[in-house]
Design goal:
Elements: H1 15-18, H2 22-25, H3 27-47, H4 58-66, H5 72-85, H6 88-100, H7 118-155, E1 160-165, E2 168-174, H8 175-195, E3 198-200, H9 210-215, H10 221-236, E4 240-242, H11 253-281, E5 285-287, H12 306-328, H13 339-344, H14 347-365, E6 368-370, H15 372-380, H16 387-396, H17 402-410, H18 417-425, H19 431-438
Parallel strand pairs: 3-4
Antiparallel strand pairs: 1-2, 5-6
Length: 452
């Protein structure tokens, strides 16, 4: 489809930025994952000695696995089956049967989807989809964002900067330390996202292995599920866990854990974008002009912080979806309702908006420069911030009412270093204390910021 005709900006305006996710979240990809699950299940049945299915040769296993490499024309073939059956998973089953019926496996086609319900196929397909997209696209993108912010933290760890609490001037910090706050927060959440595991089930229509057991009561179907999931993990380099206690559907609690991890990461990055926007507004951070680029349709001078604004908007959209997924999907009426199906098909939309946001941050960071001269000028212009330091030393020396005295000197007033030195000269403290106090400046009153 022509991208200019797309309803969603994900498949239109942002297509190039998110194209790699289509390998995991598109309709064609969902179909491929379903074929993988059905194919691997068929192979697993052939390897279970107590099942009355003959063992497959290596060549026959290859025939099955070749079906995983579907092309768009194959996906369309399956969609034709779906139009007839009005059932997406049954359409996949018919596709596999049709293709295997032309091979040496034609005698085994009724074992395809044996004893399964559609949710057995679907939940494992989505588990594979989420696990692989997370591992191969989302986490590398997040590591890049976190790494860029960490580099800024290291580079500017000693650059003193005016802090603001409640929007007002406050005890100084360093620019690098404030970047470090974000990189440290991100690292913790990304590590959690990496550890998040997805549960998967393979236990039939109401979660009790009814059909499995009636056909083969002597088989340990719980162990079969465990073995099947472990094999998928080994072959695909992922980390699913079997869920043996379910209704017809896997309860999706672990989906919610991933979505909540993503939402927390995105909230941190929304905060980062807003801080960058303010630093750019204050001219503490400047943006390199790009040849031929226009900042405003009417104001020629402007270089707008559009990358950070774009990122903020996309993160908000992603989080609205992640929040809905987390509150919707763990709930199902009794043993099953189908309202989760259309919701699951939108997983890729939330991850795509996130990916657009991460790439926008990287784009924005690539064209910023720290205006250290302006940062230090504005810091020195707010001498009142050393009042905290002076009153704290005076408390140490036992001076009466130091806070109140500094409040009278500074609150609501414009003061300079000379005002503080005059105040210090009038104190009844030892000369060495006065010398100590006069050494305090906005630039050196940064605590452990550079070491932190």
């Amino acid at each position: 489809m022509q991208s200019l005709k797309s309803i969603s900006p994900i498949d239109g305006r942002y297509r190039k930025a998110v194209e790699e996710l289509s390998n995991y979240f598109s309709e064609e990809s969902l179909i491929r994952y379903r074929i993988i699950v059905e194919g691997e299940y068929l192979i697993a049945l052939s390897e279970e000695k107590k099942v009355g299915l003959r063992k497959f040769s290596d060549a026959e296993k290859k025939i099955i696995r070749n079906l995983y490499n579907i092309e768009t024309k194959d996906a369309f073939e399956i969609k034709i089956h779906e139009a007839k059956t009005n059932h997406d998973v049954k359409a996949v089953e018919y596709f596999i049967k049709e293709h295997l019926s032309k091979t040496s496996l034609k005698d085994t086609i009724e074992w395809i989807h044996f004893a399964l319900t559609s949710e057995d196929t679907n939940n494992i397909s989505y588990a594979l989809m989420l696990s692989e997209a997370k591992k191969k696209v989302i986490i590398p993108a997040l590591d890049s964002v976190s790494g860029e912010i960490e580099q800024l933290a290291i580079r500017f760890k000693k650059t003193p900067m005016l802090a603001r609490t409640h929007g007002q001037s406050a005890s100084p910090t360093t620019l690098g330390k404030e970047f470090k706050v974000f990189s440290a927060r991100l690292k913790r959440q990304i590590d959690q996202l990496k550890r998040n595991k997805i549960l998967a089930k393979l236990n039939g229509a109401t979660g009790n292995y009814n059909a499995h057991l009636v056909a083969y009561p002597e088989i340990n179907w719980k162990q079969f599920t465990i073995n099947f999931i472990e094999k998928l993990n080994k072959e695909r380099g992922i980390n699913l866990e079997p869920n043996l206690i379910t209704t017809q559907i896997e309860s999706h609690d672990t989906y919610a854990e991933i979505f909540d991890s993503m939402r927390r990461i995105n909230v941190i990055l929304i905060g980062f974008n807003q801080d960058m926007w303010r630093y750019i507004s204050d001219n503490w951070i400047t943006q390199k002009p790009k040849e031929g680029e226009t900042g405003s349709s009417t104001m020629p001078h402007k270089i707008n912080p559009i990358d950070f604004e774009n990122s903020e908007g996309n993160l908000g959209l992603a989080n609205a979806l992640f929040n809905y997924f987390s509150t919707k999907l763990p709930i199902s009426r009794l043993q099953r309702d189908l309202s989760d199906s259309t919701v699951e098909r939108n997983f890729g939309v939330a991850f795509a908006h996130s990916l657009v946001a991460y790439k926008s941050i990287l784009k924005g960071l690539a064209k910023v420069t720290m205006n250290e001269q302006k940062i230090i000028h504005d810091l020195d212009d707010h001498t009142e911030i050393i009042a905290e330091a002076i009153q704290t030393v005076l408390r140490r020396e036992g001076v009466a009412l130091p806070y109140e005295k500094l409040k009278e000197l500074t609150r609501g007033k414009k003061v300079v270093l000379a005002d503080f030195h005059k105040f210090i000269d009038g104190l009844d403290v030892a000369p060495k204390i006065k010398t100590e106090l006069k050494k305090i400046t906005p630039q050196n009153y940064i605590g452990l910021a550079s070491k932190l």
